[in-house]
Amino acid sequence: MDDKQRFSEVVLPHVDDALALARWLTGNRADAEDVVQEACLRAFRAISSVGYANPRAWLLAIVRNTAFTWIAKNRSKVMVTTDDDATFERASLEAIGSQVSPETMLIEKADSEQLHNAIAALPMAYREALVLREIEELSYQEIAKALAIPIGTVMSRLARARSLLIQNIGKTGAGKAGVA
Questions:
Q1: Which residues have C-beta within 8 Å of that of residue 148, sequence separation ≥ 6?
Q2: Which pLDDT tens digit goes with each residue over 61-80?
Q3: Which CATH number, 1.10.1840.10, 2.60.120.1680, 1.10.1040.10, 1.10.10.10, labels domain 86-177?
Q4: What's the CA dihedral at 44, 11, 27, 170 to 10 degrees?
């Protein structure tokens, strides 16, 4: 099997997941597309020399490393926020379905935005662990391998990320409840 065919079978099925992770790490679709393109080039260059049990986790690890390299080169050391809410709105509406009242859709959209903003506000180490686990559905072992950290660190980062999410959502929820 040549490298092109191997790349098509191993990498291409996971490009959507790679783009989703890159969006979470970079904060917007255009930057994420740049990161995924570079990650795919890196994956193609390594495709013949790498043995991998889980191609999805392998690609997501490449995307993660590429994203951090890209961010360090192209951004100052400030908080990254997401400016591409259209995708989240579409996903929210698809999940809700068409038989729901406009009020329910508005509440779901507000809840989704609140959760998205809370995740985006997490420190990068916690955000990446949470996104890999809860959104990309990688196992703890796969996350440990992708991030090159011990599994105990994965578990502690996830626990801390979840705790910070609860605190952040609790604060914004309390703030909304107090406004009349």
A1: 61
A2: 999 999 988 888 887 654 44
A3: 1.10.10.10
A4: -140
Amino acid at residue number 50: V
Q: What is the chain's Cα-based Rg?
A: 18
Tokens (6 digits) for 54: 């889980």
Alpha-carbon gap, residue 110 to 118, rounded angstroms:
12
> How far is Cα 130 from Cα 139, in angstroms, rounded to an integer?
11
Alpha carbon distance 130, 138 (integer Å): 10
Fold of the domain built from segment(s) 3-74 = Rna Polymerase Sigma Factor; Chain: A (1.10.1740)
pLDDT digits (tens, 9 = 90+) for 138-165: 899 999 998 999 999 999 999 999 999 8
35 closest CA partner among 77, 63, 76, 73 = 63
